[in-house]
Fold these 3 entries.
Entry 1:
Amino acid sequence: MAGEVQVKKGSDINTPSGAQTDGMIRMNAITDLSDQLCGTVMIAKPHSASNVHHHGEEDTIVYAASGYGAIVWGPDGSKRQELAPGDFALIPAYAEHQEVNDSDGDVKWIITRGGRNPIVHNIEGWGKS
C-alpha cells in the first residue's frame, strides 16, 4: 500500500541540518520521512568554504539552484569542479570534499542523500577521517 504524499513548504525550511560551518547554512527540508532518502538546502554565503567533510555511507546528489560555487575533492583537495545554476553533481559515499563559494553572492544548492537523515562528518583535513 502506498504511503501519504508529504509536502514541506519553502517557508518552513529553517531547521538547521547537521554540523554547521561559518558561512554555510544547512537546513532540513525532507528528513525522517523516508528510510531511503532525505533532502536539505545548503546556502553558502559569499567568500566562504565548508570544512573538509564526508557523508558517511550516504551518496549525495547536489542540484545548483542559484549562484556560482565549487566542489573540491581528491587527494589533498587537488580536484575542483565549478557548479553553475542548473548543474548537478554526485558525491559518492565517504568521498572527502569541501563546498566553496568564492563569489560575491550567495550559492544555494538542493541536496538529496541516500538515507533517512543527513550525515555530515567534519574532519580535521584531507585524509584525516
Note: The longest strand covers residues 24-30.
Entry 2:
Amino acid sequence: MDFVHCYFSLYLCLLVATIFVITPSSSAIQFVDAETQARIDKVCFQMEEYGFCNGVFHEGLTLPSADFRRLAQLTIERASSNASSTHSFVVQLLAQATEEPLKNVLIACENAYTLVMQSFNKAVVDFYYNDYDSMVRDERAAPKAQASCEVTMKTPPAPPVDPLVDRNREMRILIAMAIVTGHELVPGSP
C-alpha cells in the first residue's frame, strides 16, 4: 500500500510541477482567436521578420480577440515608445562619445530619432481622433528619418561596431507594422 501511495504522490507532484511550468505568468495573451491571428498574419507576412512582428502583437494583446484598430493602436504605441527609448539611448551614447566621427554619427541619429518621435506623436493624436488618413501620413515620415540613422552609421568613417544595429532593425519593423495596420483602417485602402 505504501508503495502505491509513494508512486501516486510522485505522479501528483510531477503533474503539479508541469502545470506551473506550462502556465504563463505574464498578462500577455499566449493564444489569440483565429480571426485575430489572421489579421496579425496579414500584417506580419509583409514584414522582414515575421517572428518579431508576431511576437510584438502577442506580447501587447491582453485579450484573445483584436480588430485592426486595436492592432494599429498597439503598433503606434510600441513604435512611439521604441523611438523614445532609442532617442534616449543615442543621447546617452553621445554624452559618452569622445571621438569626433562617432559624435557626428550620433548627432545625426539623435536628429533622426527626434523626427521619428515627432512623427509618431502626431500619429497617436490622429489615431485617437479617428483621423486615420492623417495618422498614416504622419507615420510615412518615419521610415526616411530612421533610415538616415542607419545610413549614417554605415558611412565612413563609421564606428567599428554599430551600437544601434538591433534598435534600428526593430524600429524599422515597427514603423512598417504601424503603416500596414494603419492602411487597414483607411477606407478604400488596398
Note: The longest helix spans residues 68-96.
Entry 3:
Amino acid sequence: MSAADFSLYFITDRAQSPGGSLSGVVRAALEGGVRAVQLREKDLGGRDCFALAMELRSITSAFGARLFINDRLDVALAVGADGVHLGAASLPIREARRLAGPRFLIGYSAHACDEACQAEADGADFITFGPVYHTPSKASFGPPFGVGALKMVCSRVNIPVFALGGVKITSISEVLAAGAGGIALISAIMASSDPRQAAVSLLQTIEKHVQSSR
C-alpha cells in the first residue's frame, strides 16, 4: 500500500470559510470521511501556526486521519504531524527527509512534468499537480494545465499524483481516468455551507469511479 493511503487531500484556507472556525470545518470534513488534511495558512507566523496545528493534530488523531503541515517542517515535527507538504521555495526534499526520517511523509507541489519527476527522485511520497482546471487561487501559475498534462505526469512518475486546481465533483472521474491517485482541493469543502456533506459527496463520487473501473 502506498504511504499516501487516501484519495481525498483536503487543504485548508480559513479565508474561504463562510463562517465558523477552521477547526470546526476540519472536524466536519473528517466526520464526512476525509482522512488527510493539509494545514495551509500562509499568513500565520510560527507561533500561531503551531497553536493551530496542535489543535488540528488533536482532531485528526481522534479520527485516525493524517495531518500535513504546509512548508513548515519545524511545526510538523513539533506537533507530531504525519508529514509536511513542500514546494519549489521550501526546504529541499532531501534535507526534509534527512531531518524527519524515513517514515515521515513528504508531499510536493509540482507544476510541471520535469518538476514532478525530480520530486520523486528526491524522495517525495506523493505530489499534487495543477492547476488542472481554472481556479482563482492558482491564477499566478497562468492558464490551467489541463487533463492532458495531468495524464502525462501520472504516466511519468510512480508515486501518487493528486489532481489540484478547480477540481469539482463533476470532474472527478475525468482526473481519475487520467491516472490521478486522488484529488486535492480547498474550496469544495472550505467554502461549502455543509463541509461534512461536501466531503461525503466527493468521496462517494471517487468510490463510484473506482468501482466502475474494476
Note: The chain has one domain: 8-212.
